[in-house]
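At this stage, I wrote out one protein's amino acid sequence and its backbone structure tokens, and that material follows here:
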Amino acid sequence: MKRKIFLTFLFSWCCISFVLASGLFDKVTPLSDASVAGTSTHHSSGTDENIQKLATAYTILLENYVDELDADKLYKAAMKGMFDSLKDQYSEYFEQDSQLGINLQDTTTGNFGGIGVTITKQPSSTEEKPAYVEVMSAMPGTPGAKAGILSGDYIIEINGTKTDEITMNDVLSILRGKPGTEVTIKILRGKNLVFDLKVIRAKIEVPTVKYQMLNNGIGYIQLIEFNPNSAPKILEAYDELVKKGCTKLILDLRDNPGGLLSAAIQVTSLFFESGVVTSTDGRMKNSKVTYSVDRMSRHIPASVPVVTLINGGTASSSEILAGALKDYKRTVLVGEKTYGKGVVQMIYDLSATEAFKFTSARYYSPTGANINGKGIPADYEVSQPTVLDSEADEFARLYAEGRLDTFAKSKPNITNNEIRAFAKQLQSSYNIRLEILEVAVKSRVNSYSDSINVDIEFDPQLKEAVRLLTTQDVHSLAKNTKTLLELHGVTTEK
């Protein structure tokens, strides 16, 4: 039986930052008391009664429990329990010295320290699924990518501490540290492939856009994250590609974990002259908002056919963009189903050292679909190569012995012929199929490269996008696709 292990190579940018569930944050500043007031008035009397009972239990335990208790620990346990009960991986109580507040600011400024991974974590374990740390992406050139961390990996231990037994705050505090210091993580890839990686922390600087001109008039733009520079950088890239003869476009959103909502609106506005980009709705005051295209924005001509690449690391703001492109039938989606994060978070400061974040609203595509927990399926599904269960132990040995890294660092520019030759050499030592070894080698080579190097030969998803743009009328293909709401079983009037 095949186990799906994504050998993220060339363009599956596995990591971008520290370790936060990729986030669409409505605000990263504290909520005012007024903004919270009035959100739950219909439960005010019941809430007051519950608070009184909670205070009574708290006081009785502090004054009468057989052993002396730590008041702060008791309080924090109650807070943690309240947020755990929500069963929402995006809502949690944390102490600001956990670096979470700093991390959120880092995502808006584009640089920070860490190992270069974006992660998410379920609030609690179940029998079927332990609450391990799941890697959403690892940015090429960062310590995490260079160590071999891939999108879809699970970090099950950090410095010997099991991640299913600690909170996201604890994960943040352990993973982050001074540049130059080492952290050891244990990776679970697929069902049974487990191995250790030693990662040296570094200051992470996040690029926004990378681009390259391909053959046949096809321009390639990869959007790595959504920040205030995203829209201007895309236009800058597009202008440079047009100078080189670009008449068709591939937009790569693979392993893009999201970012600022405002940036998602700006980037989406590049592709449309009018219309709704997304809308949000929740119980909180002023949470029902419709966000429309910026009519004053420059627009990429509607005549330019666009193919968009997506995968399981495409999340949050990336899904807002992909959803709008799909609902307006401006593109065809190639790759694999997106992550499925269709909610907005707010952050509330309780004090100088405490805060919490919570899901305040859901967001909806232009046709009214919410993709939370569902994701957006590709119109043309193309999977990355998979590793067989019988190859798992051999693959773990390959990584552990470090031959991939030695080769990847052997010279600045490694050709495809050299990659294929080295893969054949490895096959004599490891019982792994040649196609898997070729992709694994290419992945390691690219993880050490700071520049973009688009290579269709080792990227089946990109290869399909190029095929569509060179052999098909992509505009016609897009018009015949279903909107997100139609995919959810709702028929819309023509």
